[in-house]
Amino acid sequence: MTVELEKSPRPVGRLKIQKRADLVTEEIKQLITQKNLRPGDKLPMEKELQRLFSVSKSTIREALKSLEVQGLITISTGPTGGATIMEVPLERTFQLLQNYLFFKEVSMEDIYAARRLLEPELAAGSVPFLSDEQLAALEQNIQTCQPASQEPSLLVRQRQADLDFHDILAAANPNPFLRFACELINEMLRRLVVFSTQTPPEEHTRFGCANVKIHTEIAKAARARDSERVRALMKAHMEEASEYVKRLDGRLDGRLILDSEMAPRPRPLS
User: Fold this and answer.
1) Are 86 and 72 in contact (CB under 8 A)?
2) Which ranges carry the HTH gntR-type domain (predicted)?
3) Is the pTM higher than 0.90?
């Protein structure tokens, strides 16, 4: 839907320290909040925004571009185009998080310390809400991740696909903040973990087999709606996975994520 927005007061005493476009960006955010706009709702067209904020076309376009970069809107052209509110993609959030973590010393031990706390609760909390389709997706993922090659690059890609199992569980969990935290960690592991080139392929195969085995047990317990069993299995899984990552000499590739890498991946069933 397209909404009519009333003009909001401009913050006093800030014009000297902020660009006009930055002020308009903030005012649009305030209006999004005040009007409780949701993904899919449209902002007024450019001419209406110009009139609303008494600024030039270039200022409005600069403000909208800023909101687009932040992931809050998408801009389309044409008679029915304009700025549409969108849910900020996980990939954009991950990029901003990595910008922050780039200047920190984050180790695999740090990440798995967090996973040992979060993943068991995420998995157990998802059990009552898993649909038949999501249970089938868990089982399909297990089949996909069966180690079937000694090629190191293929084995590493399978370990990345193992994380989809955890994303499927996350999609079923009703706690949005817990789901968000675990999905961000999964995205970090998927995109940034590298393993030593000196590690024998057999070690990757053993890691994959261990993951398939415990994922199978977790999926069975989830289908039986046994939340406590799922919690215990996931706790054991995180301990075991942490040890395998150490043996494989896994580490984080401490780099900044490029915009060109931000193509959204297909998300698990929610």
Assistant:
1) yes
2) 18-88
3) no
For residues 264 and 91, the answer to whether their CB atoms sit within 8 Å is yes
What does the pLDDT look like over 242-262, one tens digit per residue?
Answer: 999 999 999 999 888 888 887
Where on the phi/psi map is residue 225: left (φ > 0), alpha (ψ -120 to 50), or beta? Answer: left
DSSP class of 13: T
Q: How many other β-carbons are positioned within 10 Å of the β-carbon of residue 188?
A: 19
pLDDT in tens, 169-192: 999 999 999 999 999 999 999 999
Sequence-ordered strand ranges (E) for the chain? 73-76, 82-85, 193-194, 251-252
Stated as kind and residue range, the H or E segment containing 125 is helix 108-126
Tokens 């939340």 correspond to 227
Q: Are strands 193-194 and 251-252 parallel, antiparallel or unpaired?
A: antiparallel
**Three-state DSSP class for 263?**
coil
Domain residue ranges in the chain: 20-85, 90-261
Statement: 20-85 belongs to CATH 1.10.10.10: yes
Tokens of 185: 């960690």
Topology at the third CATH level for domain 90-261: Four Helix Bundle (Hemerythrin (Met), subunit A) (1.20.120)
Burial 50-61 (b: 16+ CB within 10 A, else e): bebbebeeebbe
